[in-house]
Amino acid sequence: MTAEEKVLLIEEQDQVAVWTLNRPGAMNSLNFEMLRALKDAVEAIRFRSDIRVIIITAAGEKAFCAGADLKERATLSPTQVKEFIFTIRNLFAAIEQLNKPVIAAVNGIALGGGTELALAADIRIASTAATMGLTETRLAIIPGAGGTQRLPRLVGRGKAKELIFTGRRVGAEEALNIGLVNHICEPAELLDQCKKMAAMICETGPIAVEQAKYAINYGLETDMNTGLAIESNAYWVTIPTEDRLEGLAAFREKRKPQYKGK
């Protein structure tokens, strides 16, 4: 299979994996083949210590991901639609819970499942040409890959209800203003900006970042006292590590630490 035929392209360099959705002719929409390719990529990378950060972006300049492939959807039985929703929901949960930071490089239109994919990432950086939105109610359905849960947790209940009830699209500036994305930049700079962010993360302790992500993700789902207990347990994991001692030694010796994830 040539690169042009693969629905997901994977490049790895300097401890960073770049996953590129590669269906530009279909606005990088999500079909069963794409979901399975992403699932395989998540499972293959989970226990690899040589990859620290994942960047998810898409081929072409028009679209990050236009959501579910509606041409495929039209051919599916109601049972197959249930299977698709089950598959995509579990996939996005796996991306959210991955033990490495995930950056979404939103390079164009991201609608429905495309915005939900970005929501499952830890950090979102968008091109000024990006358009985002949970537009499902305009098709008489609702977001089914976590959008009704992740969007309000990110932008607040009222704004999430407004966007989901109306199915309205938002541009990059508004997405930044409401906290839907962390940063915006010119389209030509997007991947470089994401790689700079990834490089900064790669300077930190791998176990520390993994435990910080765990504490944030699971702590937010609980009350403050339970969250603090989760944080405390995550902190204890870092104490006996070689990396913690290396960080102290590097600080004392005024040099850059060399973390090994041990």
Q: How are the secondary structure elements laid out?
A:
Layout: E1 8-13, E2 16-21, H1 32-45, E3 53-58, E4 63-65, H2 70-73, H3 78-97, E5 102-106, E6 109-111, H4 113-120, E7 123-127, E8 131-133, H5 147-155, H6 157-166, E9 170-171, H7 172-177, E10 183-185, H8 190-202, H9 206-219, H10 224-238, H11 242-253
Parallel strand pairs: 2-3, 3-5, 4-6, 5-7, 6-8, 7-10
Antiparallel strand pairs: 1-2, 8-9
Helix pairs in contact: 1-3, 3-4, 4-5, 5-6, 9-10
Q: What's the main sheet like?
A: 6 strands, mixed
Mean pLDDT: 95
Q: What would CATH call the class of the largest domain?
A: Alpha Beta
Radius of gyration from the alpha-carbon trace, in angstroms: 19 Å
Spatial gap, N to C terminus: 38 Å
Helix run count: 11
The structural class is: alpha/beta
Reading the helices and strands in chain order gives EEHEEHHEEHEEHHEHEHHHH
Short description:
With about 260 residues, this protein is of the alpha/beta class.
Write structural notes for this entry:
The protein is of the alpha/beta class and 262 residues long. It has two domains: 3-202, 2-enoyl-CoA Hydratase, Chain A, domain 1, CATH 3.90.226; 206-253, Lyase 2-enoyl-coa Hydratase, Chain  A, domain 2 (Orthogonal Bundle), CATH 1.10.12.10. 48% of the residues lie in helices and 16% in strands. It has helices spanning 32-45, 70-73, 78-97, 113-120, 147-155, 157-166, 172-177, 190-202, 206-219, 224-238, 242-253, and strands at residues 8-13, 16-21, 53-58, 63-65, 102-106, 109-111, 123-127, 131-133, 170-171, 183-185. The strands form two sheets. A six-stranded mixed β-sheet has the order 1-2-3-5-7-10, sandwiched between helices. The protein has a four-stranded mixed β-sheet with strand order 4-6-8-9. Helix 1 runs parallel beside helix 3 (78-97) and helix 5 crosses helix 6 (157-166). The longest helix is centred in the middle third of the chain and has 20 residues, at 78-97. The protein is globular, with a radius of gyration of 19 Å. It starts with 7 loop residues before the first strand and ends in a 9-residue tail after the last helix. The mean pLDDT is 95.
